[in-house]
Design a protein that fits this description.
549 residues, mainly beta, CD59, 35 strands
């Protein structure tokens, strides 16, 4: 390699020995670094299951002088998935020349890292050795389901750790894993919500039936932040072997609903259970938890946090009442979709996306020309323009009536709504077909004050509809059940939705009172609708007066 100053520029690169008489040359990887950098330059690559295919030509400058060049192998086993990732990179010296191992029963990971301290020295490879079982056994709890896991290899500790979305996680770990748990969490994309607790001895991470300090006696704390629920229930006694009684955590919903999340927003709504009788918000500076909490959490959040192994601020704010901890102005509403009746409408909860929303209750009644009628009930968030309205549509073969009612406070949409099925004929007459013609017409009823035409690419629908549909067809309630209504064109006036040819009333009878009309499309565009009367007298009837003389 060489380096030479040329005026204001310094150039460097690779060179043959023949030119070294004219340049400053050296031998060795990156030996021509100007004013040797305090940080190393290392090979960087990552590859699954085959170390030899890891591209060693990528270079990376380490972010800190303390970092070393390293090569790592990480074997992960989860259910039927077994894979090994090979990595070359800059490495934190805390895990240099260290093996780590952790096992939760559902997920196990073993890693080994080798380091060196010169530029581009990490071109070698390393492997992990599949561990054999040892004599240690630990509780393996994920989402509060207690199991037992057999430790293996260098796993000489039992651990307990709070992880966002999983709650308390327990299992086996090596001392090196206990020392570097944050690096492990970062690798798997987990967010820790408590410090890891590691101990020695089989089942030492047991959370039940043990001896406790007096301040942990007769405690009942419970909390749910939407991505995990945790509770600690303890009952104490003071005589030998008196702690044989079982304790349990109540899990039945108690009717309270709270905003829940990790970022101070109402990311979701949760149904509180058991003793969780308050909604809470706790901003630790790193996370802003919200959700359901028991009175004991509100009274002393720091002590409760220690029992629950979760980070809570001393300034934890609690309140009582559905979604009283909501930090923004959007509504929270009950949701129930596509139920045949209110009796089977099973409510869940949601936060509305828009500030221009209300909580809505809807009922839709569909009727076919064959006399079959079915209804559909719904609760959800709804935009204000769809509130307190009736939408009615009829294209001859079927009719649909949507009735909505709205309210503007959290979880207010608990009532039931009866469909406004007014069948009173209002005098408007519209073409009503699905074949693009006007061979049939329908008499509009109730709020149906427009005729419509809608082409969905396969059929051309015509019929009666209400102004509430015509105002915004794509976002109408009717378009939910009949998507073809999204393309509707509306007009007002009898048969205004007819095609270019006329449609006329057609009947033949001996008197107007017996003339039962039906609609008929004229075969040509230059024809007119006509009403006519024709009378005639036979010769016998004409001569009969004369013959009487």
């Amino acid at each position: 390699m060489f380096q030479q100053a040329n005026g204001g520029n310094t150039i460097g690169g690779c060179i043959s020995e023949a030119y070294c008489a004219y340049f400053d040359c050296c031998q060795g990887n990156l030996c021509n670094k100007p004013n040797p950098s305090p940080v190393l330059t290392c090979y960087q690559c990552s590859n699954l299951n085959e170390s030899s295919s890891c591209d060693v030509q990528q270079l990376s400058s380490c972010s800190s002088p303390a970092m070393q060049c390293g090569v790592s192998a990480i074997q992960t086993i989860q259910n039927s998935l077994n894979q090994t990732q090979y990595i070359r990179s800059c490495v934190n010296p805390a895990i240099c020349n260290v093996s780590m191992s952790i096992n939760t029963g559902e997920l196990s990971a073993v890693s080994h890292t080798e380091c060196c301290q010169s530029n581009l020295c990490n071109s070698n490879s390393t492997e992990v050795i599949t561990p054999s079982p040892n004599t240690l056994q630990c509780h393996s709890a994920t989402s509060n389901v207690d199991q037992v896991v057999q430790c293996a290899g260098i796993e000489d500790r039992c651990f307990t750790l709070g992880i966002s979305g999983l709650g308390l996680v327990q299992g086996c770990a090596s001392q090196s894993a206990c020392d570097n748990v944050q690096m492990i969490a970062d690798y798997f994309g987990f967010t820790t919500i408590s410090n890891i607790s590691c101990c020695q001895g089989s089942f030492c991470n047991n959370a039940t039936n043990n001896s406790v300090r007096s301040e942990s006696c007769n405690v009942s704390v419970s909390l749910n932040y939407g991505y995990g629920s945790t509770a600690w229930i303890s009952q104490c006694c003071s005589s030998d072997l008196c702690n044989a009684e079982n304790v349990s955590v109540a899990s039945d919903p108690n009717g309270l609903v709270c905003c829940a999340g990790l970022n101070g927003l109402c990311q979701r709504l949760v149904m509180c259970t058991g003793i969780q009788d308050h909604c809470f918000i706790s901003d630790t500076g790193l996370s802003a938890y919200s959700g359901c909490a028991s009175q004991s959490v509100c009274d002393n959040p720091v002590t409760a946090a220690a029992s629950l192994q979760i980070s809570l601020s001393q300034q934890t704010h609690c309140c009582q009442g559905n979604v009283c901890n909501k930090p923004n102005v959007t509504l929270s509403c009950y949701v129930c979709q596509s139920s045949p009746s209110w009796d089977v409408c099973e409510n869940t909860t949601t936060s509305c996306d828009s500030e221009n929303s209300a909580c809505g209750v809807f009922v839709n009644v569909n009727s076919s020309g064959l006399g079959v009628t079915n209804s559909e009930t719904e609760r959800s968030c709804v935009t204000l323009d769809r509130c307190n309205t009736t939408e009615s549509t009829n294209y001859g073969l079927a009719s649909s009536i949507w009735t909505s009612h709205c309210c503007d406070t959290d979880l207010c949409n608990t009532e039931t709504v009866v469909s406004n099925t007014s069948g009173v004929i209002n005098g408007l007459l519209c073409c009503a077909t699905t074949d693009g013609t006007c061979q049939n017409a329908v008499q509009c009823t109730g709020v149906e004050d427009n005729c419509f035409t809608s082409d969905d690419g396969q059929n051309v629908y015509r019929g009666c509809t209400s102004q509430s549909v015509c105002n915004d067809p794509p976002h109408s309630l009717t378009a939910r059940s009949w998507p073809f209504m999204s393309n509707s064109r509306c007009c007002q006036g009898n048969l205004c939705n007819r095609p270019d040819t006329l449609t006329c009333n057609n009947c033949y009878a001996t008197s107007w009172t017996t003339c039962e009309s039906h609609a008929e499309v004229c075969p040509q565009g230059d024809m007119y609708c006509v009403s006519s009367a024709y009378s005639y007298v036979t010769l016998a009837e004409w001569f009969s007066p004369l013959l009487s003389y």
